[in-house]
Amino acid sequence: MRVLVVEDEKKTASFVRKALQAEGFAVDVCHNGDDALAAARTTPFDGIVLDIMLPGRDGLSVLRQLRERKNTTPVLLLSARGEVNERVEGLNAGADDYLPKPFELVELVARVRALTRRGGENKSTVLRVADLTLDTLTRQAQRGETSIELTAREYRLLEFLMRSAGRLCGRMMILEKVWDYDFDPGTNLVDVYIRRLREKIDANFESKLLHTVRGAGYVLKDTP
Asked: Do 129 and 181 form a contact (C-beta atoms < 8 A)?
């Protein structure tokens, strides 16, 4: 499950991120509303933790924009004020749940888990590109009739590429989404893992799915 945390207080965002990651969630973080909308357009999240008080575009504006764009990702609103009229406004704008600040991390994690579980009831847990499948519940990968064993990091990389199927994924984007890096470590880390993944999902198959776009990144797609 991938969750977007939108929180301008960087210390709070870091605590929330670590708590969710400890429970097995993949977590992206944004600190303002415009970046949150951009992230939601490019990445299929399973849940969004959205602070109302943000610099520039506030959380309620972000929420309304998401719903106007037919984005049905479950949203948990956070607010330091916790006033009844604000909660009602948020729920009327399309929020799925509301948590006033200050909050206990254990409660936030429980609410996010409940939201993503409900949101996933109407979504397939199996990702598919051509004859490659990935079950996001069991974490089992399969190409045709062949089972593929993946390490935890290889799984995260393949899940991200499959959720982004058909779209170019640059190295920096992969570092952010798969390794949670917000900087380039200056190594060939991504290339090494792409090579390992390619050996598992492509090497023994006639049709190749994982393609290199020289100088730009990688794309996972079915080619005729």
From this structure: no
Q: Counting beta carbons within 10 angstroms of the beta carbon of residue 23, is it exposed (0 to 12), middle (13 to 18) or buried (19 or more)?
A: middle
- pLDDT (tens digit per residue) in 96-124: 999 988 899 999 999 999 988 765 544 55
Beta bridge partners of 47: 3
Domains of the chain: 2-120 (3.40.50.2300), 126-220 (1.10.10.10)
From first CA to last CA, the distance across the chain in angstroms is 30
pTM: 0.61
Decide: residue 124, CB within 10 A, 0-12 exposed, 13-18 middle, 19+ buried: exposed
Beta-carbon contacts of residue 125 (< 8 Å; ≥ 6 apart): 135, 136, 137
- Phi, psi (rounded to 5 degrees) for 68: -65, -30
Q: Residue 109's CB: how many other CB atoms inside 10 A? A: 16
CA dihedral sign, ordered 214, 131, 190, 20:
positive
**pLDDT band at residue 30 using 50, 70 and 90 as cut-offs:** very high
Q: Looking at this protein, which amino acid is placed at residue 186? A: G
The dihedrals phi and psi of 4, each to the nearest 5 degrees, come to: -100, 125
Burial tier of 85 (Cβ tally within 10 Å: 0-12, 13-18, 19+): exposed
Mean pLDDT of the chain: 88
